[in-house]
Each structure stands twice: as structure tokens, then as C-alpha cells.
Amino acid sequence: RTLSDWGVEPAVVLGQGTGEVAAAVFAGALPLDEGARLITAWSRRPTTPPGPLRTRPGAVPFYSSATGGYVDGTDLDAPYWDRSMRTHPRLAEAAGALAEGRRLRVVEITPHPVAHLALRRGLDAV
């Protein structure tokens, strides 16, 4: 929320792994308490689905590194998150999909910029 406090508002969001949960919360598709519950469940038992989640349409478009494209917030249910933890990330594909027809300024928020190369590949392909 710090970026919002500074007047920086995203046109779209994309995350990978636990960052995908943060992106869904920021988009407004997943309530903060549900995002925290999901992360807690993953940290305790990564192979066990978290149970039912409350979702809603997001205010900001959400692109998924699990699917490689746009996902409506109402589709971010427990089975979605279970699949996302079991599939190989499709970050470059998702970055390419979100960049279609847009001029972008990309802000990567991470302690370790591991997604940089995949993002660059996806954006260069557009």
C-alpha cells in the first residue's frame, strides 16, 4: 500500500508464488485476511489446500503466473491456489499477456529480483 500512498497506482498486477497472493490482495480480488490465511496454510502444509476462500472481482486486472494470463478475481478459489502451487510458473507468458496493447512501467517488488529475466523475456516478446 506504500506505493498507493505515494500516488502510484497499478494498471495491472502480476505475482509469482506468494507474491501472487500479494498481487491478488492488492487487486482487491482476495481480502487481506484470506490472503494471510492462505499464506499461513501454505507455510504449515504446502501440499494441503487451504479450504474455501472468499473472493470477489478485483478493482485492478490480475494476471496469473500460474495460468500465464488474465484471471477474474472470482476464480481465485482454493482449487486455483492449490493448482498454482503445483504448476511450473508461466511468468514470461503472463508478462507478455498483460503487456499486450499497453505501455508499461514495471515495478518489481521483491527482496531478490529473481523474476527480472522472465519478465524481460515476456515483455520483449510483445
Gist?
This protein is mainly alpha-helical and 126 residues long. The chain contains 6 helices and 3 strands, in the order αβααββααα.
List keywords for this structure.
mainly alpha; Malonyl-Coenzyme A Acyl Carrier Protein, domain 2; three-stranded mixed sheet; 6 helices; 3 strands; 43% helix
Give the topology.
Elements: H1 2-5, E1 13-15, H2 18-27, H3 32-44, E2 62-64, E3 69-70, H4 78-86, H5 91-99, H6 116-124
Parallel strand pairs: 1-2
Antiparallel strand pairs: 2-3
Structure description:
The protein is mainly α. The protein has a single domain, classed as Malonyl-Coenzyme A Acyl Carrier Protein, domain 2 (3-Layer(aba) Sandwich), CATH 3.40.366. 43% of the residues lie in helices and 6% in strands. It is built from 6 helices and 3 strands; from the N terminus they run αβααββααα. The chain has a 3-stranded mixed β-sheet. A hairpin with a 4-residue loop joins β2 and β3. α5 crosses α6.
Count of folded domains: 1
N-to-C SSE string, H for helix and E for strand: HEHHEEHHH
* Main beta-sheet strand count, sense and barrel state: 3 strands, mixed
Look at the helices and sheets and give the structural class.
Answer: mainly alpha
Tell me how many strands there are. 3
List the strand order in the largest sheet: 1-2-3
Count of helix runs: 6
| Main CATH class | Alpha Beta
Strand content: 5-15%
Distance from N terminus to C terminus (CA atoms, Å) equals 29 Å
- What's the Cα radius of gyration? 14 Å
